[in-house]
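Chain A, query sequence.
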Amino acid sequence: MADSRTSPHSGCAGWLVLVADDDEDSRMLVANALRRAGFAVMEAENGKVLLTLFREFAPANPLVVSDVVMPECDGLEATAAVRKGSPRTPILLMTGLGGAALLRSAKDAGADLVLSKPVDLPLLVSSAVSLIEKLVA
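Chain A, predicted structure.
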C-alpha cells in the first residue's frame, strides 16, 4: 500500500531539485522524500557545491532546497547568489535555528520559504509542490 506522504505527485515529474545540507543523514532524508514524490534530485554537501550544480542546471530552472548553516558557503549566501542570477528560481531553506532575525535574513537573501529542522517531510514535499505550482501559474 502506498504511503500518501511519499507517493508520487503528478506535478513533480520532470522537476529538478537541488538539495544542499552538510549533514549527510538529513540530506539523504530530504532527497529521498523528494524522490519518492516524483522529483529528480541532485545533492550537494554545502553551498559551494550547490552553486556549482545550480550554474550547470540553471536552464532547467531547478527548485533549491538548502540548509542554512553549512561550511564554505552557507545557505543564505547561496540563496543570495541564486536569486541574483535567477530571480524566479524557487528557494526553500531549512534551519535548526530560530528567531525573527534569521527569518528576516532568509527573506532578504531571497528565500521563498523557511522550514524548521527537523523537517516535517510531508510538509517539505507539499511546500516544494506549492512553490512549483506558483512558478508555473
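Residues 1-6 have pLDDT under 50 and may be disordered. The chain has one domain: 22-86+99-136.
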